[in-house]
Protein backbone atom coordinates (compact mmCIF):
# COMPACT_ATOMS: atom_id res chain seq x y z
CA UNK A 1 0.00 0.00 0.00
CA UNK A 2 1.38 3.32 -0.97
CA UNK A 3 1.62 6.23 1.45
CA UNK A 4 -1.08 8.05 -0.48
CA UNK A 5 -3.45 5.06 -0.20
CA UNK A 6 -2.71 4.83 3.52
CA UNK A 7 -3.45 8.51 3.85
CA UNK A 8 -6.78 8.06 1.99
CA UNK A 9 -7.60 5.03 4.16
CA UNK A 10 -6.99 6.99 7.36
CA UNK A 11 -9.03 9.90 6.02
CA UNK A 12 -11.90 7.49 5.21
CA UNK A 13 -11.64 5.96 8.70
CA UNK A 14 -11.67 9.47 10.22
CA UNK A 15 -14.75 10.40 8.19
CA UNK A 16 -16.50 7.21 9.31
CA UNK A 17 -15.62 7.94 12.93
CA UNK A 18 -16.88 11.50 12.54
CA UNK A 19 -20.13 10.24 11.05
CA UNK A 20 -20.52 7.73 13.86
CA UNK A 21 -19.91 10.46 16.46
CA UNK A 22 -22.49 12.69 14.79
CA UNK A 23 -25.01 9.84 14.71
CA UNK A 24 -24.38 9.07 18.39
CA UNK A 25 -24.80 12.76 19.29
CA UNK A 26 -28.10 12.85 17.36
CA UNK A 27 -29.27 9.69 19.16
CA UNK A 28 -28.40 11.21 22.54
CA UNK A 29 -30.31 14.35 21.62
CA UNK A 30 -33.34 12.31 20.50
CA UNK A 31 -33.20 10.27 23.69
CA UNK A 32 -33.12 13.44 25.80
CA UNK A 33 -36.05 14.89 23.81
CA UNK A 34 -38.05 11.69 24.27
CA UNK A 35 -37.39 11.63 28.03
CA UNK A 36 -38.35 15.28 28.32
CA UNK A 37 -41.56 14.64 26.36
CA UNK A 38 -42.41 11.63 28.55
CA UNK A 39 -41.82 13.61 31.75
CA UNK A 40 -43.99 16.44 30.43
CA UNK A 41 -46.73 13.98 29.47
CA UNK A 42 -46.60 12.26 32.88
CA UNK A 43 -46.84 15.62 34.65
CA UNK A 44 -49.89 16.54 32.55
CA UNK A 45 -51.51 13.16 33.22
CA UNK A 46 -50.93 13.60 36.96
CA UNK A 47 -52.47 17.07 36.82
CA UNK A 48 -55.53 15.74 34.96
CA UNK A 49 -55.85 12.77 37.33
CA UNK A 50 -55.65 15.01 40.40
CA UNK A 51 -58.25 17.34 38.90
CA UNK A 52 -60.57 14.40 38.19
CA UNK A 53 -60.15 13.12 41.76
CA UNK A 54 -61.17 16.53 43.10
CA UNK A 55 -64.17 16.62 40.75
CA UNK A 56 -65.22 13.13 41.84
CA UNK A 57 -64.95 14.07 45.53
CA UNK A 58 -67.05 17.20 44.95
CA UNK A 59 -69.63 15.16 43.05
CA UNK A 60 -69.79 12.60 45.86
CA UNK A 61 -70.31 15.40 48.39
CA UNK A 62 -73.14 16.87 46.28
CA UNK A 63 -74.74 13.44 46.02
CA UNK A 64 -74.48 12.91 49.78
CA UNK A 65 -76.03 16.33 50.42
CA UNK A 66 -78.83 15.59 47.95
CA UNK A 67 -79.52 12.24 49.63
CA UNK A 68 -79.61 13.95 53.03
CA UNK A 69 -82.00 16.61 51.71
CA UNK A 70 -84.26 13.95 50.20
CA UNK A 71 -84.20 11.96 53.44
CA UNK A 72 -85.18 15.08 55.40
CA UNK A 73 -88.01 15.80 52.97
CA UNK A 74 -89.21 12.22 53.18
CA UNK A 75 -89.19 12.38 56.97
CA UNK A 76 -91.28 15.57 56.89
CA UNK A 77 -93.76 14.02 54.46
CA UNK A 78 -94.02 10.89 56.60
CA UNK A 79 -94.65 13.02 59.70
CA UNK A 80 -97.37 15.00 57.92
CA UNK A 81 -98.94 11.80 56.62
CA UNK A 82 -98.92 10.27 60.10
CA UNK A 83 -100.54 13.42 61.52
CA UNK A 84 -103.20 13.30 58.79
CA UNK A 85 -103.89 9.64 59.55
CA UNK A 86 -104.29 10.44 63.22
CA UNK A 87 -106.72 13.26 62.37
CA UNK A 88 -108.71 11.02 60.01
CA UNK A 89 -108.80 8.26 62.60
CA UNK A 90 -109.94 10.72 65.26
CA UNK A 91 -112.66 12.07 62.98
CA UNK A 92 -113.66 8.55 62.05
CA UNK A 93 -113.77 7.59 65.70
CA UNK A 94 -115.83 10.68 66.56
CA UNK A 95 -118.24 9.97 63.73
CA UNK A 96 -118.49 6.36 64.78
CA UNK A 97 -119.18 7.41 68.35
CA UNK A 98 -121.84 9.86 67.17
CA UNK A 99 -123.53 7.16 65.05
CA UNK A 100 -123.39 4.75 67.98
CA UNK A 101 -124.99 7.32 70.31
CA UNK A 102 -127.72 8.12 67.77
CA UNK A 103 -128.38 4.42 67.22
CA UNK A 104 -128.58 3.88 70.96
CA UNK A 105 -130.89 6.86 71.35
CA UNK A 106 -133.17 5.62 68.55
CA UNK A 107 -133.11 2.12 69.98
CA UNK A 108 -133.88 3.40 73.44
CA UNK A 109 -136.74 5.44 72.12
CA UNK A 110 -135.33 8.80 73.07
CA UNK A 111 -136.38 10.34 69.76
CA UNK A 112 -139.94 8.87 69.83
Q: Can you give a write-up of this model?
A:
The structure is a single chain. The protein starts with a helix and ends with a helix. The model has no long low-confidence stretch (mean pLDDT 89). The protein has one helix at residues 3-108. By secondary structure, the protein is an all-alpha fold. It has 1 helix and no strands. The protein is rod-shaped, with a radius of gyration of 47 Å.
Put the structure in a nutshell.
The chain is mainly alpha-helical and 112 residues long. It contains one helix and no strands. The model has no long low-confidence stretch (mean pLDDT 89).
The whole-angstrom Rg is: 47 Å
**Annotation field: number of helices:** 1
Number of strands: 0
Distance between the termini: 157 Å
Structural class: mainly alpha
How much β-strand is present in the residues?
under 5%
**Order of helix and strand elements from N to C terminus:** H
The major sheet is characterized as: none
- Mean of the pLDDT scores? 89
Stretches where pLDDT is under 50 for at least 5 consecutive residues are none
Helix content: over 70%
Net shape:
rod-shaped
Looking at how many chains there are and whether they match, the oligomeric state comes to: single chain
Amino acid sequence: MTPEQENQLFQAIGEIQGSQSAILDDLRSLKADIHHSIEKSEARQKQITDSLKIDIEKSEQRQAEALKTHAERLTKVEEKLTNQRVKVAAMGGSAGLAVSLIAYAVKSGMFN
